[in-house]
Amino acid sequence: MNEPAPAAPIAAAAPAQVAASATVTAAPVAAPAVATGTEVAAVRCENCGAPVPGKYCGTCGQRREAPVHSLWHFTRLATEDLTHADSRLWHTLGTLLFRPGRLTRDFLNGRRARYLPPVRLYLVVSVAFFLVASAVQTPFTVVDFHDKPVAGKAAVVQELDEVPGLKPKADETPEQMADRVCGAANYDGPWAGTLRPFVQKFCRKSFADNAHVQEAFMHNMPRAMFIFLPLLAGLMMLMYWRPRHYYVEHLLLFVHNHAVAFLVLGVVLLLDKVVADIPGLNFAVFLYFTWYMYRSMRVVYGQGRVLTWSKLALLAFFYLLSASLMLLATSAYSVLML
């Protein structure tokens, strides 16, 4: 008689089913989904396989892109990487050239994602500079033994021919001239017995095989800079003893400052090759580097103007002295290792 009674358990079970349904609905989705026909597949990184909730993979950082199937698609991706407003390359170069010390300070403060890593930046710029320098240099030739000097050497040879003892004699070979000129090159300083043979060898090879000496020198210079920069950073530790700074701070400043030096000097070499004798160019570059070093030291270390100028003058003196010794040592090494 009481037919409606069984409806009570159904009504009681309804809230549990609703709760279970709500729990399923509220479960987090591991990754966005893409419809593939009748089924739905999660979007995963093609590099590491992790779910990709946005444009970039949160595990390896790779950008999610459609497969490259055409040259036009590849060209668009490459153009976007080079010209995009958020490109780290252009942002780094702009900051490097026009905001001295900013790259160093931001790196030390942890703001690094927007810039290229300092070591990679230095390597790329320095390699580009030495390639440009090797391509546009005017070879230094002590004496040209050809009847008609090659283009670019005539002026140098003409000036050196006016130096007493450097003008070649009739029917004199490069080896004979090296023997004649270097025969009087004696070293009588400290450790003369040990160093005199190296001085003689250096002199003879410089005269007889100058082209290979230059090639070896340009090859060894980047290596010498890897020794030169850490030594300068050690000098800066003595100059900035109080307040105390870490050695890496000084090294990072020199890495960035030498990167901008290589960049500017590379452009100057190219300009000088295209447009010879630009009035005031060398003086403008000198003023720019002086301002750049002063401003970068002020930004990174935060000391007063007078104190910063004083330390810059002291640094310039030791820089020129150590750079001269480095060039001399690199030249000697390049000659002796031939």
Task: Walk me through the structure.
The chain is mainly alpha-helical and 338 residues long. It has a domain at 116-137 and 212-336. Helices cover 64% and strands 2% of the residues. The protein has helices spanning 7-26, 71-83, 88-98, 102-108, 118-136, 154-161, 174-182, 192-208, 210-239, 247-274, 281-301, 305-336; strands at residues 33-36, 39-42. The longest helix is centred in the C-terminal third of the chain and has 32 residues, at 305-336. The termini are far apart. Mean pLDDT is 75; it is low at 6-40 and 138-163.
User: Strand-residue fraction?
Assistant: under 5%
Query: Helix/strand/pairing class, anyone?
Result: mainly alpha
CA-CA gap between termini: 115 Å
Shape: globular
Radius of gyration, whole Å: 33 Å
Sheet with the most strands: spatial strand order: 1-2
Biggest β-sheet description: 2 strands, antiparallel
Low-confidence stretches: 6-40, 138-163
Mean pLDDT: 75
Total of DSSP H or I helical runs spanning 4+ residues: 12
Helix content: 55-70%
Order of secondary-structure elements: HEEHHHHHHHHHHH
Q: Count the strands? A: 2
Oligomer: single chain
